[in-house]
Amino acid sequence: MLVLEKDEMVQNFIAQQNDLKEHISLQNNFLENQISLVAGLDIAYWHKNNKEYGACCIQVFDFRSKNLIEQVSYINEITVPYISGFLAFRELPLILEAVKKLKTQPSLYMFDGNGYLHKRHMGIATHASFYLKKPTIGVAKTYYKIENIDFTMPENIAGAFTDIVIDGEVFGRTLRSRKNVKPIFVSCGNWIDLDTATNITMHFIDKDSRLPIPVRYADLATHQARKLHQDDV
């Protein structure tokens, strides 16, 4: 891709993000007892024959029983190049096609990635919310550093957290989901507050992973889909 074309693409992406971020709400638009189904979502990539492909997997769980209710996937070629800070523009086409395959209607989506914890508050969990029209949560395995600000490690106690504050604003939360494991990074997507996002994340933590069940299963499903399809595309 020519430098000029990439620069024009980036400016267009920034303009779209700046427009959408004016409509972010960090308040719940639901009651917690209204949550029935929660979807976990992740995407894996691979290259073949000089092309890039992606698999989007969605795993839907019952909030109360934590049982798996539905799982779908969608695979296609990726046409948008990777540019840091603009992941949603690569992933949204896959996400929206995968969502069309769902027979259930999730109350909320959890993403393996960031939401408000983004330099323009437009990580994939936030960006996708405007198309899904549902509350969203970002749960990342690694820290996305903004303005060279590091996170503060929480106590080694399950449920301990420290807020990620940049220029006086809380962007997200470093959460110790289980004792003696690395923390995860929780941020609001949209139409949810950070305490509720943290509570829902902890609700889905089990003894087998530091990630909440919907995100963990989505992550595992993407690896399986990639292994299954990368030789078949």
From TrEMBL:
Keyword Magnesium: yes
Taxonomic path: Bacteria, Bacillati, Bacillota, Bacilli, Bacillales
Cofactor dependency: Mg(2+)
Binding site residues for Mg(2+): D42, D112
Reactions it catalyzes: Endonucleolytic cleavage at apurinic or apyrimidinic sites to products with a 5'-phosphate
Keyword Cell membrane in record: no
InterPro entries named in the record: Endonuclease-V (IPR007581)
Stored Pfam families: Endonuclease_5 (PF04493)
GO molecular function: endonuclease activity
Annotated site residues (Interaction with target DNA) in this chain: Y82
UniProt EC number: 3.1.21.7
Principal subcellular localisation of the protein: cytoplasm
Assigned keywords, A-Z: Cytoplasm, DNA damage, DNA repair, Endonuclease, Hydrolase, Magnesium, Metal-binding, Nuclease
Protein name: Endonuclease V
Location of this chain's protein in the cell: Cytoplasm
Source species, domain of life: Bacteria
Assigned protein family: Belongs to the endonuclease V family.
Reported function: DNA repair enzyme involved in the repair of deaminated bases. Selectively cleaves double-stranded DNA at the second phosphodiester bond 3' to a deoxyinosine leaving behind the intact lesion on the nicked DNA.
